[in-house]
Amino acid sequence: MSVTDSLPTIHWTEDGAERSAMWRSEAGLPPPKRVVIADDQTPADTAFRLASEGTALLWRGDFQNARQLLQAMARRVDRKPKKAPKPAASLTEAFHKHRLAQSQRARTLGMLLLPFEAGHVVPLRRAPDVHEACEQVYGQSDTPYVASMRELLGLIGAFEWRKKGIEIPALGERIHPWYGVFSPVRGEYIDLVAKEPLPSGTLAFDIGTGTGVLAALLAQRGVKRVVGTDQDARALGNARANIERLGLTGDVEIIEADLFPEGRAPLVVCNPPWVPARPSSPIEHAVFDPDSRMLRGFLNGLAAHLTPDGQGWLILSDFAEHLGLRTRDELLGWIDAAGLKVLGRSDIRPRHPKAADADDPLFAARKAEMTSLWRLAAK
After folding, report:
1. Where does the Methyltransferase small domain start and stop, copy by copy (predicted)?
2. Which of 2, 79, 211, 336 is most buried (CB neighbours < 10 A)?
3. What is the pTM of this model?
């Protein structure tokens, strides 16, 4: 069965006839049940009202006008209400309200849809050539389909990042992230790994390697052999491509595994998702970890994969603690229950713009946030 055979179908009526096409959504959203045709004559207020009510708009006008319409819809979504909302009783409530608002925003803006012909061609006036950006995410396509414009713009942005790459000062090189793989734009955790004294230079495991940035950094620091693991197909491809580009294939091996590879190592590193909450799309799994599954899995399996006197480096933000989603006592309890002890901890403050944005609804938590490298060992 091909990928397109497994895609759902979207249905609509156009020119008095029933139409249908394959539906694509990287967020895993089902096809909208109500679809109307929209074009250059569709007012932004009308488009916003229909989208807010759950009616999708399949665009038949000029591509650039569609981009402007999406921007106009976004301004309406982000418009502050005339009556100030009731303040959240706690940061936990503020977080859940913020997540709900983000979800509703994404759902509304995702209602502006584009038609695609075979080969990822957008058959609209002034439409750019997007086949390469789409092919990197969707794969080859010989069938027409429909997808949201917002998702397409995300694919285009990711395509540009993948080409350009992100400069990693601690590495002295660029890392090229793929769509759907956590991008190392927050450099604090990388700096922690770059500065921490290595317990050994022989072997290290990088659990949940993502783009492979930490595996590359460890190899560059002199670790003779690094094994990076991940279970996401895109992350595995991304890490291998970065390692090859950096000329480190002789030092770093990327393998598919749910957390640990076989064997033991004197250094096991893990930078798990920091927020124990449900992701709203597959792309968010790098940030949101329901019930702290990966964090607890790493802790519970760490002692069995450390050599005598080996160290486990857990890189974790305390953002969840400030949001009331996890307590420090819970974390310390999990460490103790896993047969581990804390050897030490290095901390660093975040440098991203939101940490200084007083208008951010979670500013109090972001301002207090600290990212830490916990050095752990078996008891």
Report:
1. 204-278
2. 211
3. 0.91
